[in-house]
Write a structure and sequence with these properties.
Elements lengths: L1 E4 L4 E4 L36 H8 L3 H4 L22 E3 L5 E3 L3 H14 L1 H7 L5 E4 L8 E7 L8 E7 L16 H16 L5 H16 L16 H9 L5 H10 L7
Parallel strand pairs: 5-7
Antiparallel strand pairs: 1-2, 3-4, 6-7
InterPro entries: WLM_dom
Pfam family, one: WLM
Protein name: WLM domain-containing protein
C-alpha cells in the first residue's frame, strides 16, 4: 500500500499494513530439500574418574626439575632431617660422647617449623636441616647437591647449623639462643638462591629479616651470640631489616674489600 507524503514529497511504505506471509504446511514442503537438524550442546558433564585425577596431578621428572626445590629429596647416603652427632674429640684427643641429643633434635625441629613461612614466601626450600659438628668447621654451611637423575639443573640443599657451643658441647645452658640460630639460618637460606655474598645476597637477607620481624619471629631482648663479620649484616640484624637499599649499597661499597666472596 502506497501513501503519498506531501511534506516530504516522497513515497513511503506503511509497514503497519503489511501482513506476514504464512508458512506452507509441512506436507507442502518439497521432498528434495534436506531437513536441517540443529546440533545442541549437551549439558551432560563428562564423568570424572580416579584415574583421570591421578594423571592430572602426576608430574614427570622433566617437569619437576623446573618447578622447585621442594620436590627433591636427598639420596639415602646423606643425613636426614634433624640428624645429630654422637661424639666429638676434646683437646686431649679423646672421643667423648655428646649428651642431650634430644634437646638438639627439638631445637632443630622448632627452627624448621618457625622458618616455614619464610621458606614458602621466598621459595627457599631445602631438603634437610641437621646439626653441624660442635668443634669442626664453620658455624653453619649449605651443601648444594646435584641431582642428575631429575635433570641437569636439579639440586637439593642440605643445611647444617651448629647448636652447641664449642667450648662446652655437653652443657645445654650454653647452647645458642633462638635469635642467634635464626640469624645463622637466615644467612644459609639466602645461600640457596645466591651462593656468594654479593649485593643480591645482601638485599635478600634484608627482605628475610623484614618479613620475619613482621610476623614476630624474633624473641625480644635476646643477644646475638655469634655476630657477623660483615657490617651490613650487623646493621640488618640490629634494625631487623628496616634498612633502605641506598644505605646498604653504600655500606657494601665502602667495605667491599673485606667480603668480596
Amino acid at each position: 500500500m502506497e501513501i503519498f507524503n506531501e511534506k516530504a514529497n516522497s513515497i513511503s511504505f506503511d509497514r503497519r499494513d503489511r501482513s506476514r506471509t504464512p508458512l506452507p504446511p509441512k506436507s507442502a514442503t518439497p521432498k528434495f530439500l534436506p531437513s536441517i537438524k540443529r546440533k545442541h550442546k549437551s549439558t551432560e558433564r563428562p564423568s570424572k574418574h580416579k584415574s583421570d585425577k591421578k594423571e592430572k596431578n602426576s608430574i614427570s621428572r622433566e617437569e619437576s626439575a623446573s618447578i622447585g626445590l621442594k620436590y627433591y629429596r636427598l639420596p639415602s647416603n646423606y643425613p636426614k632431617h634433624f640428624d645429630t652427632f654422637s661424639e666429638y674429640t676434646n683437646k686431649e684427643g679423646k672421643q667423648i660422647p655428646l649428651l642431650h641429643r634430644g634437646i638438639v633434635v627439638k631445637t632443630l625441629y622448632n627452627l624448621h617449623r618457625d622458618v616455614q613461612p619464610i621458606v614458602n614466601k621466598f621459595n627457599l626450600h631445602y631438603a634437610a636441616l641437621s646439626e653441624n659438628h660442635p668443634t669442626k668447621g664453620k658455624a653453619a654451611f649449605t651443601n648444594r647437591i646435584p641431582l642428575k637423575f631429575f635433570g641437569p639443573n636439579a639440586h637439593a640443599h642440605h643445611i647444617l647449623i651448629r647448636i652447641r657451643h664449642p667450648s662446652s658441647p655437653n652443657d645445654p645452658k650454653k647452647f645458642y639462643n633462638k635469635s642467634t640460630l635464626l640469624a645463622i639460618l637466615f644467612h644459609e637460606l639466602a645461600h640457596i638462591r645466591h651462593m656468594d655474598h654479593k649485593q643480591d645476597f645482601m638485599l635478600l637477607i634484608r627482605d628475610i629479616y623484614s618479613y620475619a620481624n613482621r610476623i614476630n619471629l624474633f624473641p625480644k631482648d635476646e643477644e646475638h651470640q655469634m655476630p657477623s663479620c660483615r657490617e651490613w649484616e650487623k646493621l640488618i640484624y640490629n634494625f631487623k631489616g628496616r634498612v633502605s637499599d641506598e644505605v646498604l649499597n653504600d655500606l657494601y661499597k665502602s667495605n667491599d674489600a673485606s667480603f668480596t666472596n
